[in-house]
Amino acid sequence: MEIVEGIGIGVAVVLAALLILFIRRALYTRSGGIIRLSVRVSTLLDGRGWSPGFGRFAGDELRWYRMFSFALRPKRVLSRKVLAVERRRLPEGQERLSMPADWVILRCTSNHAPVEIAMARSTVTGFLSWLEAAPPGAVSPRLASQDWPAA
User: Fold this and answer.
1) Of 31, 48, 60, 80, which sits 20 to 30 A from 137 (CA to CA)?
2) Among 75, 72, 82, 88, which Cα is nearest to 120's?
3) Cβ within 8 Å of residue 25, ≥6 positions away
4) Which UniProt keyword terms apply here (predicted)?
5) Which phi and psi angles does 18 have, rounded to 5°?
6) With b meaning 16 or more CB within 10 Å and e meaning fewer, what string describes 108-145?
7) Cβ neighbours of 67 (radius 10 Å)
């Protein structure tokens, strides 16, 4: 009888954990501004180290949450103010096996540290628009430094 109770408790714990994962994911994706996004968390092996997740735009930040994590906080936060895209490439070698065929990899720098993110080709345009945009009333640093003729 103790074995059956132990198995029952184990199954209940696993089901509760899965329920928490799916509820957390549903809460984050319900609010909009969510994209599927993979981040390379390790560069030890070529083509490996990608972790799937989703990104949520919140003002000047892109908050990345791991897909299979119980954490309520984002695993990584990328600020629009210090994020720059260096280059774009297609998945190569092992990467083609770990992500969908229509995804693009962007090599970026954030606070002078490299970061690689992967997303669907259709999402890249929106991401780049968000990256280049400024909130209402803000002045781009590139425009602020130029002398504009008086109107």
Assistant:
1) 31
2) 88
3) 54, 67
4) Membrane, Transmembrane, Transmembrane helix
5) -65, -40
6) bebeeeebbbbbbeebbeebeeeeeeeeeeeeeeeeee
7) 13
